[in-house]
Amino acid sequence: xxxxxxxxxxxxxxxxxxxxxxxxxxxxxxxxxxxxxxxxxxxxxxxxxxxxxxxxxxxxxxxxxxxxxxxxxxxxxxxxxxxxxxxxxxxxxxxxxxxxxxxxxxxxxxxxxxxxxxxxxxxxxxxxxxxxxxxxxxxxxxxxxxxxxxxxxxxxxxxxxxxxxxxxxxx
Length: 171
What we know:
CATH topology: Rossmann fold
Structural class: alpha/beta
CATH class: Alpha Beta
Strand content: 25-35%
Shape: globular
Strand order of the largest sheet: 3-4-2-5-6-7-8-10
Radius of gyration: 15 Å
Number of domains: 1
Number of helices: 7
Helix content: 40-55%
Number of strands: 10
C-alpha cells in the first residue's frame, strides 16, 4: 500500500498541470526526489547511519534540500544530512548527488570522479541523462518528467523498482 501511495504522489507531483514548469520545478523537485529515493535500493554498508545528499552548483538548492531534511528527517530509515560540494574531487561518501542547473562543472568530470561509488546522480539539465546522470528532470509537453539511465544505475550497484521504471522516460 505504501508503494502505491508513493507512486501516486510521484505521479501527481509530476503531472500537476496548473503550475508552469518553472514554478513546478521550484516547488516540487525536492519532494519528487525524496519520493523517488524510496524506490531505489543502495548496496548495504554496515556503518551507514546517515543518508547524505550532496548538492553541487546552487546555494538555493542546497537550502531547499536542507529544508527537506528538516521536514522529512529520514530516507530509508537513515537521518538525512545535506552537504554542499564546490568541486567533483571533494565529493565524499554520499548516496545522492544533485547537480543544479547553475553547476559549472562538467557532468562528465563528476561521473568520472564518482564512477566507483554507489551514488545516485540527479540533475535537471538537457542531455545530462545520456551523459551519466541516473535521474534527469526534463520538460516534456509542458510537464515535468524524469529520464532514467538504467545502465548508469546498474554500474553503480543501484536497484531501481519496477514502479519507478514504469513512470520514467528510460534512456
